[in-house]
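User: My collaborator and I are trying to settle a disagreement about how two of our proteins should look. Neither of us wants to argue from intuition anymore, so we agreed to look at predicted structures for both before our next call. Could you fold the first one, then the second, and keep them clearly separated?

Assistant: That sounds like a sensible way to settle it. I'll keep them separate. The first protein:
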Amino acid sequence: MTLALPSTIQARRAEAATIFGSHGVPSRRVEEWKYSDLKVALGEAGIGTDQALWQVDALPEGVTQFDLSKSDAPDWVQKHFAVADRNIMGAASLTLSDGGVALLVAKGAQIAAPLKLAFNGTGHVRGLLVLEEGASLILVESVGIADFRNVGFEIVLGDGASLEHIRISPESGDAVLVEEASLRIAAGARYRAHFAGFGSKLSRMELEIALEGEGAEAHLSGVSVLDGKRHSDVTTHVIHRSGNTISTQLFKHVAGGNARAVYQGKVTVAKGANGSDSHQSAKALLLGENAEADLKPELEIFADDVKCAHGAAVGDLDAESLFYLRARGIPEAEARGLLLHAFLEDAVAEITSTDQRELVRTALLAALKSVA
């Protein structure tokens, strides 16, 4: 079975097959995969051709759903599906998936309750989310456990649309979980995303975000708490294509045992995108001699009159602060937990939805007990 979509989309799929065929499964010799060796993590099993699953909660008024395994694709799917993927694993999911889900939020629709989307099972799957002009949505994406899963997710925000995207990836044992999200953000639209990860054999979230219209914004934040041999990778590329666009990135990592946290964040300000404003910050605390953190913020600027800054820092728990808490009768494990929670909190506070913020906090507190 193959995706039963119109010829224009089939042509895009053929292009993706060429891209994936010329590269194959990425290893550390691919610069973007320098810190995460997918080929080694998969071993002889490779990426296979299995089909992963998707599930969406009951749809509220103003949201339309289309099953990508069907042939009668509406105009909005034909226009937006399979347009953006040019990275290796995004091309792989488009080439090998037989279906997925497409969601459309109607023009001006203000969806108050969070919409829950889950990807489950082993294999490849696609997702498409389109918010029309002035629409607003909170998307809560959950990540199910699998041996291997590769999700290709495209998100399109029309003029003035607003999306808050919360993605929680639980501790997933020996799973290899990869997701590529490609976003196109129109004038005056705003994307806020928060990623909470607790590690697996290899977990990677890759985002390519194009700020295509005047005043478009993207605000990314994330936390990870890793122990054992867990590996978590967040790789981002934000492209300021229009003027007066804004992007912020704030990522915090805690790694113990033999865990490894990776953040690669590239910002490109294109020629003519004057007045762009971009800030990146990535920090990690290492709780053991064998824990690792690779933090790599990067800027490419081809425009004038911009405000761009980035920073990265790796360290361990502040001994003086720990001593201060211990001196006031707080047990060491509790004191360490308090310091770790404080370290992560400003990233968690970026979540504007109160309920989702508390959900992430609860998950973090539970995870910190195992590493503190």
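The second protein, kept apart from the first:
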Amino acid sequence: MTEGRTSALLIFDVDGTLLQTERVTVPAVQRTLRARGLAEPDADVICSFFGKSVAAYEAWLASLCPPGQMEEIVAETNALELRLIGEEGRLYDGVPETLQRLRDAGHRLAVCSNGPRDYVDTFLDAHGLRPLFHGVRARGARPEGKTIMVGELLAELGGGPGAVIGDRADDLRAAHENRLTAIAAAYGFGNPAEHQEADLRLERFPDLPGLLAGRF
């Protein structure tokens, strides 16, 4: 760490922050339903569930399925989604290089996602990002949300100062409720109303080191 700079804990959301999730979850849902002769929801409807709990997403997906097929179709969709993370998933431009730059600068990096643990693990491994992160939290079926998980990462990784970088309101709320800087990933799936409480707006992922320079 450069003299005069502070090591920050930087906690990243996955969907809409690091990963272009529309390339993964949208085709997983549409292809699975199409193969069974069911109506395909619009991409915008699917994307509206990014950042929500697994329970909310799977309840919606099950509502599109005939009785007796719900569990099977949800399981098929989830399995295809995991496969597509590596085959068709894309990071936002500059993600690996920027994360490496932040780590080289002495910052501690972590991931905090509402997704299942196998989803987050597959994402990290498929894109070679796991060595860059000091900590990982995935909500999965846990009832508690990001505020609790961010608090756990703070306790595990030595506390603040730090920031949460994410595209949805719960990312920004988790930052403030843990006394961290809230950085809105403006390029993701959130909307301007969700970003009103952000301390900083990130328009492009490679801009993050410069955005942090005046803070840490």
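Some points you might bring to the call about the second protein. The beta strands are 9-12, 108-113, 135-138, 162-166, 181-185, 200-202. The chain has a mean pLDDT of 94.
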